[in-house]
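User: I need a structural model of EamA family transporter from Streptomyces fagopyri for a docking pre-check later this week. Nothing fancy, just the predicted structure tokens so I can convert them on my end. Input:
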Amino acid sequence: MTALFALATSLLWGLADFGGGLLTRRTPALTVVVVSQAVAAAVLGVIVVATGAWGEAGPRLWFAVAAGLVGPVALFSFYKALALGPMGVVSPLGSLGVAVPLTVGLVLGERPGPLQFAGIAVAVAGVVLAGGPQFRGAPVQRQAILLTLLAALGFGTVFVLIAEASSSVTGLFLALFVQRVTNVVAGGTALWASVRRGSAGLPGDGFPWRALPSFAFVGLADVAANGTYSVAAHLGPVTVAAVLASLYPVVTALAARGFLSERLRGVQAAGAGLALIGTVMLATG
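Assistant: Understood. Predicted structure tokens for EamA family transporter:
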């Protein structure tokens, strides 16, 4: 079941990233983050009230608050890095955040079997290659590399924090709600500061009301991914759950191929194949 929920996480995060990428073509990235997370927070608020999840409030919620603060920083750093450096270099480096939960799991005493260790190595290599790393062309700015590594550290930290934020299903609903509210507050503050400095907060033709269902999809898919990852991390080794959940760049690349007819380069196709092989090794090891 750990593999099933972790793979569901990759699917949901991959589709959320793909949808968010499409939205940012017309709407500022900060606005996409704030609106999508606000929709998710509203839906989660209804669920929390309906399930009586407030009764699960406790010290664990501080992990959700921390995840809500770290998440926007990671996203903003990632978007800034994409603007500074070649996407073919930035994208695969961002997936290296899987090292954080892997390290935490090993420190806590998790010891995957030999086949799973090999699967971890194969899957991580596949994820990096699926991003289509390319080091030719425009030089990679040092700031872009540093921002990407900061984003990767943030993504990996969110993996760890959200897994610790709850111990029950209703508690998970509450933790995700708190995380999203924190995301909206932190992201909204950053958006307000950006607009005050003269940056655009909306497209030239105003708020994209017709795209609201897309905003909702991105926010809810991201929430669902956090939830399935938390379940996966509780059902089995964090080392296995984290690696399988980190396959989302493969999903994003395949979605771009299917919906936008973007061609996969040879290295990306090879990476997707390695990721699939690593997944099988992890699930059967």
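Before docking, keep this in mind: The mean pLDDT is 80.
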